[in-house]
Amino acid sequence: MKIFADLLHSLLYAPQRLVKQAYLVEFIKNTPDPDRGYALSALTGELSIQGVKAGLIRKIAYQKCDPVLFDLSYDFVGDLAETTALIWPNTTRQVSGIRISDIISKLKTANRIDAGTLVQEWLDQLPESQRWALLKLLTGGLRVGVSARMVRLALAQSYQIDVNEIEQIWPLIEPPYLELFNWLDGKADKPDAAGRAVFRPMMLAHPLLESEIAEMDFASFQAEWKWDGARIQLVSGSDGVRIFSRSGDDISGTFPEIAKPLSWHGVIDGELLAGNPNKIGSFQQLQLRLNRKKPSVKMISETPVFMRVYDILFDNNIDVREHPLEYRREVLEAQMKTGLKTCYLDLSPILADASLANLQTWRQQCRAGGLIEGVMLKNKTSSYQAGRIKGSWFKWKRDPLTADLVILYAQRGHGKRSSFFSDFTLGAWGEGSEYDAQTLLPVAKAYSGFTDDELKKLDKFVRENIIQKFGPVREVEKTLVVEIAFDSVQYSKRHKSGIATRFPRFKAIRWDKPARDANSISDLIAMIDI
Amino acid sequence: MIDTSWLKISKSGLYIVPAKAHIDPVRSVNTAIITHGHADHARAGHKHVIATPQTLEIMAVRYGANFAEQKTAVKYNQKIQLAGVNLTLIPAGHVLGSAQIAMEYADTKIIAAGDYKRKSDPTCAPFQVEKCDVFITEATFGLPVFSHPTPEAEIQKLLEVQQLFPERSVIIGAYSLGKAQRIIALLRAAGYEDTIFIHGAMKKLCELYVSFGIELGSLQTTPIGRIDNQQISLANKFILAPPSAMGTKWAQRLCDPLVVSASGWMQVRQRAKQGGVELPLVISDHADWNDILRTIKEVEASEVWVTHGREDAIIHACTQMGLAAKALSLIGYEDESE
Ligand SMILES: [Zn+2]
Ligand SMILES: [Zn+2]
To answer: What is the count of structural domains for chain A?
Structure first.
């Protein structure tokens, strides 16, 4: 556990990616199996330990420390593992040489009650840094600035091989990745994906920056709508059809109407939308389905979903990812008429003549409805690669909506922002709601979009204008107007105001603007697009 | 029965009614009793300032020699009277000259401790425990997650990285008053004798410490222009700078700097990480959780008032100990001055 704790500490404070990667390479070279695989899987977020969840850690902590004090501490630190590690008293029973693999194998065979006892025992035996590492390992979410991609790059560097080789077999292996290490160490054959319904890492788009527009050669790009649904991957193999989320989670059970056997075998990429190809449903309807792990028959018939397909990775078990987009599109179009011809799959159309002028017009039209977030621009010659590839795929979102809202409540941020009031609840005037026009109703919670300097000023404003405390929440004088940008507005039954904003963030602080000039609920309702 | 009606909270801070005097007022007042020289406690613009000789000198460095019309220097444990209120300034162990304000009136003794700590510090007089009826404590680190290690162990880490990276300059972010001098003194105590470089903003305060008999060894103000021209190498040297200078051009001129930050906040990892800190040192000039609670017990007060910081947790702990406790919710004292 000490080696892992030292690694996490080094990674957390390493200033640059390259330094982080160097620490990872050192670790991979010097740590035995299966400990290194387990440690790496904690970093890639793939390690899951049954029975040890946040709830259990909290329960153990409550037994050791006054729950009120624990909650206050947690509220300040913002991280369960770190709070518990810091608050846990040091004992004189410290033991060295506890291995990650011991911990995991003991927990695998333990029931919930034993697991709690085991974790308590280890916490008593470890110093603070290792308590922190242990709890991070058990609860996930390491937050040391290492991505799964960086881990694979470090593996490639450690063994002097091409990272793509590792990317390709990654979906086949599971922690502690013995199949991988045995192959890398020359003790076994390379794991083989052929024909298995496994997730392939998705290709992602860069946002198109204002500064890049002038240099774009739009003629070499294929333009499509950017659908406002959920990105999914459909994999059809000898072992059936599976649906994966963007992050590779198997969500087949959530969408049984799509995860149905196909005679065609391969992998396609697209957007999951509510409704049917002829009539798209709202994002809320999709959300309803995404939130229900096992939908009822009634729900499936009332709120159906379909997949709008835009790319193909494998066609009848042939890997076409290395081929240019233009070629893959031809293959996809042909299959949509044959092997993929069903009522729940349809093709995302190409927008003809993607000139700058047309693109600008299309972006403006997005607000007219149809669940479109903007346009996608994909280099016609691009191969399908995992992650964000420079110059290959761009997303060009429509301009956000904006509204002037009033700060109602503020709360301290977590972790590095714990010294500032950085989380804000913002309100609009009640006109257009079922409440009085003279009341301010909460419509958004925003905690980003301001500079460090602005944050200091906001914090100062809050401190000087507190009128009431509710636990960690501070109610402030309703005087400060903020221009908020957001992606869309929806009706919402869960909110008092009747509406909810998506991804609200600060655009400008309007120190000059009086609160009475802020927007009302009816102004916001006018912005709802479907 | 204790009577506390003579000590009130005004918009400017704590107010001793019969003496017509404020403690650490955040606005300009006629009579101010100042606990210590940190800028959020010792502000400019008061007519009459009562403080320890060290604190008065610190304020003179900060605000110029004529920072008040009248100055009254009160030595530690010297008793004075102000309109019938007995006042004593006793060591708080926070920074040079820092004092707790002990007040006696109407058969009730109240101590406003200001900022204080209990861990060792070679640059100031150690905290003196004094029994009282009401103890007014700060709560900057008033959560059980804060348990500060010994500063000597933290300083060892500094010497280790210096040996590990001989080609890098080690730049340490530390407040100009107190923290900087304490780190220098700790380095000296650990046997480091080489010249230590300091940011210009710290020069006068370091000289002041020396004039009060605190040995800081060989110091040199960092020659910015000459670093720029590469005429001087600061590789493998320690450079101290106020946190505000860390992100500036000044720091960027150093070659491959290794950024160290020394404060009690460094215990919270995600917070330590911000600002590109590569080596966080948990060295604090405030009492940690256990030391706050220990102090509350030792002064045997029956009532505890909590000023700035994490009041809720301290109040909860006092209630558990059977003590009456309340938050004063004073505004204007910053968490970060540490
Ligand atoms: Zn202070
Ligand atoms: Zn203070």
So the answer is: 2
Chosen for mutation from B147, B154, B268 (greatest number of chain A CBs closer than 10 Å) is B268
Instruction: Tally A–B CB contacts below 8 A.
Output: 74
Classify B28 in phi/psi space as left (phi over 0), alpha (psi -120 to 50) or beta.
Answer: beta
Q: pLDDT tens for residues A482-507?
A: 999 998 888 887 788 889 888 899 99
Tokens coding A461: 């404003």
Average pLDDT, chain A: 89
Chain B residues touching A418 at Cβ < 8 A? 268, 271
Q: Tens digit of pLDDT for each residue in B302-323?
A: 999 998 888 899 999 999 999 9
The mean pLDDT value for A507-521 works out to 92
A13 and B280 within 8 Å at the Cβ level: the answer is yes
ipTM: 0.92
Task: Note residues around ion ligand 1 (Cβ under 5 angstroms).
Answer: B 38, 115
**Which residues in chain B touch residue A77, judged by CB atoms under 8 angstroms apart?**
145, 268
Among the bound ligands, the one closest to the CA of B307: 2
* Residues B122, B93: Cα–Cα separation, whole Å: 10
> What's the angle, vertex CA A202, arms to CA A199 and CA A205, rounded to 5?
170
- The answer on A440 and A374 residing in a single domain is no
Domain shared by A359 and A211, yes or no: yes
Structural domain boundaries enclosing A429: 401-525
Give the CATH number of the domain where residue A308 resides: 3.30.470.30
The per-residue pLDDT for A305 is: 95
Q: Does B247 contact chain A (CB < 8 Å)? A: no
Could you give the C-alpha distances from B185 to A186, A393, B91, B202, B264, in angstroms and in order?
56, 57, 19, 14, 18
Do A314 and A420 reside in the same domain of the chain?
A: no
Question: Are residues A390 and A271 both part of a single domain?
Answer: yes
Phi and psi for B255 in degrees, rounded to 5? -85, 125
